[in-house]
Write a structure and sequence with these properties.
Radius of gyration: 28 Å
Helix content: 40-55%
């Protein structure tokens, strides 16, 4: 009852019920409830602006927890995770996080650096307890709540005071290691299974790392088992480090990816000079943007989460409904979402509702240009996923391609690819793409679900030009529609292994879906990643048939020239805008985005250089011949 009244700010009633609880709780036994009651009391007092009393209770409670566990008197500012490492449950995670909140609020009012350092340490301890508690499966609402509270606390610590590069790395590592790793672990498993040409030493490292992950996740109170696990972990880490050191001598960029113990330094080592990652953290109160380049990390608190959500929803509705007044909104959103100088190659990792926005439409208020006009933009699901895409990016050129273009029974009166009517331009699109890459076309009665499943491991690229259905109330029903109205569901893809370098879903709403707390957007794009697809081109709304075909053909023409996927898609969109001045509204061109590995699928074409060289040689020959004739005269 005390908690319920505290949430609605009925503090006097809340205190009344806490005092009743204090009188009946067993003070002799060590259990979470007696400590939780004190923390709730401290939160109530903080709400009543009795901050000193609140801090005193919070400090005393944590010191009492440590004393009862270790039989040592340890001051609050000296408490370490090792003192409480076996208290990994939601109650103690919450206790440490709430006391951290109290010290953070004290810093905001007093500006005492000691309070900020105490808050930071308690958030880190809470985060480590969470990491130990979280079993690396899918997030639920409770896990997501605790993760967001800890994340927001750590990000506030980083934005309230100038932090060193090392401190940023440390706290961001804490955040990333607490995030859901369900998708990352599954993709990692699929991608390793399908990777070819690995040497025996690679396979041994992967096997040792899997064994190490297992022992790191073990939880036991048996002293013998604890000692055995520690020894095993130490030995396995030594073996992995030794093999990694040996292989690094011959493979300069080789690192062991470990989703269980993610290290941001390894991720950032893959960033080139003209590359930039921007990760957005959508927390309960505020939204934070973090920019990563090869030599800097910049963290900004950019907006109220609730206000940005409302502003973004209005903009997306206007965009999808072809409203003409979008430019004012897109400029305003640029100012909020892009508080950094941008590099040429930009990878965005949106959070929560920001997944619905194609950042390509944001307009720079200074240049009056869309971001797509001056940057190559791609997306990814997380920092660990981006690192995996760098380690396993495509190196094969002249890849095999299959296009599926089903026949639908009725003629298409609606111009979008969202109903079950025949798609005239989708067929033309598929034929052109197949001719460009000397691929195989599965058209009409051959474009079946059975053929796709049969052929899914035989091609490097799949182009699926077809209808799709989005079910926001039950994402498992979302599907791609093959010939004879055969449906390939979201849940079907989750159970598949599709070891391809790229799938292009030239259909409606394939990047859209329901947001699942802690996991992200449940889209067909996510399902493909879960199945092991390295990169996907997907749509964020109901796309028009004719305009989609034009952009897609241009995209593949650019890929044929050896352009990377993000460059090829950006150029295709810019060409469309230039060639269609009456259709420059973002509705027509911004719907498609590329997610994952953006490496090229073909060698760059240097034929033009040969032609230019021949022309210069011919010109020089003609000039020389003319001068020779004049000389002889």
């Amino acid at each position: 009852m005390g908690t319920s009244y505290e949430k609605i700010k009925a503090y006097e009633k809340a205190l009344y019920h806490i005092k009743i609880a204090e009188n009946v709780v067993d003070k002799e036994r060590f259990y979470s409830s007696k400590f939780s009651i004190q923390i709730i009391k401290a939160m109530i007092l903080s709400g009543m602006n009795k901050n000193e009393e609140a801090i005193t209770i919070g400090k005393k409670t944590l010191e009492q927890i440590v004393f009862e566990k270790t039989k040592k008197n340890i001051r609050l500012d000296q408490i370490k995770f090792e003192n409480v490492s076996d208290l990994a449950d939601t109650y103690f995670i919450n206790i440490f996080e709430k006391v951290a909140d109290l010290y953070l609020n004290q810093y905001k009012s007093t500006k005492e650096k000691k309070s900020l350092k105490t808050a930071e340490n308690l958030y880190v301890i809470s985060g480590k307890l969470f990491q130990k508690y979280y079993a690396k499966g899918e997030f639920n609402d409770y896990l997501n709540y605790y993760h967001l509270e800890i994340t927001e606390g750590l990000l506030q610590c980083l934005t309230l005071e100038l932090s060193s590069y090392e401190q940023k790395i440390k706290l961001l590592n804490s955040i990333e290691n607490n995030a859901s790793q369900h998708l990352t672990k599954e993709f990692e498993k699929k991608i390793k299974r399908s990777s070819q040409g690995k040497t025996e030493i690679h396979q041994k490292i992967i096997a040792l790392q899997s064994e190490l992950d297992y022992y790191l996740q073990q939880q036991t109170t048996d002293p013998k088992e604890i000692a055995f696990n520690k020894k095993k972990i130490k030995n396995l880490q030594s073996e992995v480090n030794l093999l990694t050191k040996n292989i690094s001598k011959t493979e300069k960029n080789f690192t062991v990816f470990n989703a269980t113990n993610f290290d941001l330094k390894n991720t950032l080592s893959h960033l080139k000079k003209d590359q930039q990652l921007i990760k957005y953290y959508v927390c309960r109160q505020f939204v934070y943007a973090v920019s990563f380049t090869n030599n800097d990390i910049v963290i900004k608190k950019i907006a109220s989460s609730e206000e940005l959500h409302e502003q973004l929803n209005e903009f997306i509705v206007d965009l999808k409904n072809l409203k003409p007044n979008y430019k004012k909104s897109t400029t305003a959103l640029y100012k909020i979402l892009i508080p950094f100088n941008l590099e040429k190659n930009l990878t965005l990792i949106p959070g929560s509702y920001l997944n619905y926005l194609p950042f390509e439409v944001l307009m720079n208020p200074k240049t009056k240009q869309y971001t797509i006009e001056s940057h190559f933009i791609s997306y990814d699901y997380s920092l660990p996923m981006w690192e995996l895409h760098q380690q396993y990016k495509n190196t094969k050129t002249n890849q095999s391609l299959a296009a599926f273009s089903p026949f639908y029974a009725t003629n298409n009166e609606d111009e979008t690819r969202s109903n079950f009517k025949d798609l005239k331009f989708a067929t033309i699109e598929s034929q052109k793409i197949v001719s460009l890459f000397d691929g195989d076309l599965f058209a009409k009665e051959k474009a079946t679900k059975a053929n796709f499943i049969k052929k899914k491991e035989q091609y490097d690229i799949f182009h699926l030009s077809m209808h799709s259905q989005l079910f926001e109330e039950d994402f498992n029903k979302s599907c791609l529609v093959f010939s004879n109205n055969e449906k390939l569901y979201f849940s079907d893809l989750y159970g598949m292994n599709i070891p391809t370098s790229m799938v292009v879903l030239s259909a409606c709403d394939t990047g859209n879906g329901t947001i699942k707390n802690g996991e992200g957007i449940m889209s067909m794009s996510r399902a493909l990643t879960y199945a092991g697809v390295k990169s996907a081109v997907v749509s964020l709304w109901q796309v028009s048939d004719k305009e989609t075909a034009e952009i897609m053909i241009s995209f593949y023409e650019n890929l044929k020239k050896g352009q990377s996927k993000d460059e090829a898609l950006a150029n295709a969109k810019n060409i469309f805008i230039k060639n269609n001045p009456m259709k420059n509204h973002p509705y027509y061109w911004a719907g498609f985005i590329v997610n994952g590995d953006v490496s090229a699928i073909a060698n760059k074409s240097y034929a033009w250089m040969m032609y230019v060289s021949l022309a210069l040689i011919l010109l020089l020959f003609l000039v020389y011949r003319k001068k020779l004739v004049q000389f002889r005269k």
